[in-house]
Design goal:
Blueprint lengths: L6 H10 L4 E2 L13 E6 L2 E6 L23 H13 L5 H9 L9 H15 L7 E2 L35 H4 L7 H8 L3 H6 L1
Parallel strand pairs: 1-4
Antiparallel strand pairs: 2-3
Length: about 200
């Protein structure tokens, strides 16, 4: 379960629905999209990281990782989203729905990400059941496994056609940002982009 997943996640989701199995039994891997998202800032890519409670980083199941509130990361993320997307065509359209996720405190990262994903699927008008793992498996021989391939440090292996981005006149089109980049810039047309 990713925090504000990248565009690739939703393209894969569409390709393999309804046979989606979301991992919740693996040990929490560091430096992945499970607690980070990339957005487009005036300087280029800005990574937003949800801090986790110390000790949650080793041998803790993803579903049991707790969010840290030692500093006001929600306020920082919300201010960053406003600064980066206030000028986008659809930020105000989704603003009230998103602001809730930066006001309410969620104890567990998995639950927070799940609620965000449910909202994103609704906003994108994607209907697919979400099924979850009951135990950890190293391999799923009969399923496409994207647990480690959709990763911030790996190059994406699909062609992504450009769409308008707020700061593209400065840095050009940036691929595979968080789905919110597509949503804030394309609004209800984002679903057509994903399936187009």
């Amino acid at each position: 379960m990713f925090y504000l997943p990248p565009v690739e996640y939703f393209i894969r989701l569409n390709t393999y629905k309804p046979d989606i199995l979301i991992e919740r039994e693996e040990h929490f891997p560091k430096q992945t999209y499970r607690n980070r998202a990339n957005i487009y800032s005036p300087e280029g890519i800005l990574t937003l990281v949800v801090p986790v409670v110390k000790g949650s980083k080793t041998h803790t199941k993803v579903k049991d990782v707790k969010i840290s509130y030692d500093f006001e990361w929600q306020r920082l993320h919300w201010l960053s989203l406003q600064a980066c997307y206030r000028r986008s065509a659809y930020f105000e359209y989704y603003e009230d729905d998103f602001s809730v996720f930066y006001q309410n405190k969620y104890p567990f990262l998995f639950d927070y990400n799940e609620q965000l994903l449910q909202f994103l699927l609704k906003a994108l008008k994607i209907k697919t059941p979400l099924n979850y793992t009951e135990s950890f498996e190293f391999e799923y021989p009969n399923l496409a496994d994207f647990r480690n391939s959709i990763h911030p440090k790996k190059e994406i292996d699909f062609e992504q056609k450009p769409y308008f981005q707020v700061f593209d006149e400065r840095k050009g089109f940036i691929k595979n940002l968080s789905i919110i980049d597509l949503l804030f810039n394309q609004g209800p047309q984002a679903v057509n982009y994903l399936w187009g």
